[in-house]
Each structure stands twice: as structure tokens, then as C-alpha cells.
Amino acid sequence: MNFASSLCRRLNIKELVTNVPVYRSTSEVSGEGLSLVFRRWATKRTAGSTKNGRDSKPKNLGVKKFGGERVMPGNIIVRQRGTRFHPGNYVGCGKDHTLYALKEGSLKFERNKLTGRKWVHVVPKDGHVLHPVFAYASAIKPQATQ
């Protein structure tokens, strides 16, 4: 009971200040079997290097499937920033401008001679017929305006 009451009793500031043991050397401390290690704390932390640590993860951009290769639906053809390559027949475009195949077939890259615009098409596998919307659009090629 005496031990618990000594732990739980309140101490005033005067008792704390007057009853603090002062040690001048480590030999005075280690006499009772209790060893204390003196450690000096820094008042300010050292400044870290701010020139490193800002490298970003690679984005893995570029052409993933090349002309003449067979693709399955969902295969990524080109990862790009902006539309360097535009989607053609049976090619979809994601929100980050990634081009992907919509049908099974082989790839065909096309470049417009006048505008220089590059198109990516999937030529469907044998037995697939081009959808009428795509067939109509490919039959009417936009003419250069003068």
C-alpha cells in the first residue's frame, strides 16, 4: 500500500527540483548496480539532402505491337501521350490515348501523305466482315481542302 501511495501521490515543483540527483561522472551512477548511459541530444537536426529523391516511375510508353502482328481483342497496340497515332478500323482509344484492338486480326499502320497523320488499323481475321459503318467511312476518304 505504501508503494502504491508513493507512486500515485502528487509532487509539487519544489520537490521535483530539490530531489533531483546530480551526477558529475559515470562512476557515481554505476555504484548501486543501476547503470545509466549518458547521451547528448542535438538541439537541431542535421539538414538532409534535398537534391535527391524526386525520380518518377517509368511510364513504359511506345508501340507495343508492330505492323503485321496478330492481335487479340484488348491487346494494347500503342501507349502514348496525346494522339501521335490515331485509331482506325477496329481500334479503340482509351482516356490516356492508349490504342487497343477491338477485333482479332493483324495490324496495319497507315500514314496520310498530305497531312502526315498516322493511323492504326486492325485488319480482321478471315471470316470477319467489316462493319457497314467502318466500310462506309473507309470508302469516303476525306479530301484535302484547298
From TrEMBL:
Stated name of the protein: Uncharacterized protein
Domain of life (superkingdom): Eukaryota
Organism: Trifolium pratense
